[in-house]
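tmp note - Sensor protein
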Amino acid sequence: MRGRSLAATLALAFGVTTLAVFVLVGSFLYLALDKQIKAQDDLDIVLAARHARRLVEELDASNGIREHGDRLTSIVLGNEAMSMEVFGPDGHMAIEHNAGETFATQGGAANGATSAASNAPDDSVALNSASETGTANDLHDPGETAEAGGVETIAALPPLTRIAATARITDVDIGNWTGRNGAPIRGILADARLHNGDTATVLIARNMSDRWRLLDRYRDKLNLAGAAGVILAMLLSYLLIRAALRPLRDIAASAGLVTVNRLNTRITVARVPSELEALVNALNAMLERVEHGFQRLSRFTADLAHDMRTPISNMRGAAEVALARPRSTDEYESLLASSLEECDRLSRMIENVLFLARAEHPQFVKHMRAFEAGQELTRIAEYFEGIADDAHVRVQVTGAATLTADLELFRRAVSNLLANAIRYTPSGGEIGLDVRASADAVRVTVSNQGQPIAAEHLDRIFDRFYRVDPSRSSLPSSGMSQGSTGSTGLGLAIVRTIMELHGGTVHAESDAQSTRFVLTFRRV
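out:
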């Protein structure tokens, strides 16, 4: 099943992210504008109420309210949304301006009244349904509405907090109610003390419908701009991501050129982004390992076929010679013995190949334990004592150290090196097994006298089926046990594999005095 497009997925994710950002930013701007508008309008209402109170307080008596009505209403002139009503000491309306849309005609109560009574002095009067001049039904009786559209008495006003004449007018005293046609209204009701001691009441209100319409238009524009921005962001991000992913398509095209016959091909992409440079390097390194592994496998297969062909050809040739004419019992027994030796050689070769295959598997199990390496070297030397005597060589063990490793693999590695040393040590020579411990590693050295190995062979003698002298491949196994490799050409390769399993190394040194194989086990 084909997966989703990465470019489309990233573009969608970017679009969703952009939408979320637009929603957050738009909401913030909308709320900020609403708050700023409301704060400015509240300031206008408070300033108008304070100014109106000062003007009323300059009057001597209530009859001066009508006489100076133009002066009082001039406070709200020029702003069609602002309205004013001034009530005399008897609670009846004395003057009004633009109050037609201020009050509800459908019995609508206030949306909410700001409870600032706690801030007013004790002589402030709160309007409620039980006021001295009327009941709750009287508050919104359309019959009490003035011809100009206002209300004739304070009792018909919405339930606002009435600020006492001695209290300071602030924005916390502003109340909310619903006017005609559901228009939102905000206003302040405040008392003013005349010179003769009577109290007049001033109502300053503002119709907020224009502000609501402004905010609605602003919200609609934000929604439209946000939707367009999201669509544009998704489109542009898709195109940009497609362009940014072009190197990946080039990498895929370059990788498609790699075949079995072209393993030397490497991924080459012009102007690789820094984020993909590590990927390209890793893929090229992987291809290099695959090429080396394939080449090694090809050489291994060819060498294995060549080495297995030799004992099979020997057995076939001996059998053909024996069948050419009648033979004696001794000759047939000699033929069977020779065939059995070749079969043993094949068995050892197959066993070693299987061991190498298992050892390269990631789940190969090692049984690590601590043991005395010097004692194990002595046991191995005693095991090879008979073979060494037949080859007329001596095995000398020196040193002592505690080593943590897989004991069976350790024995196999040392046995392979010792068998190899016995095979190439001249008669009367000496083989040394030595173990030494340092601060960071334990080193086991197998040394033998004999012809030195050329420097160009030292790095390759641990390869599978590699021999310094191919003519020695047919040397007899000298009765070595199954743990040794005879002349199969895999002994040193097994040693290197065992050391790799332990995280250690093996290397060879050779000069005119001796040839030395050094196993290095690093301390953990």
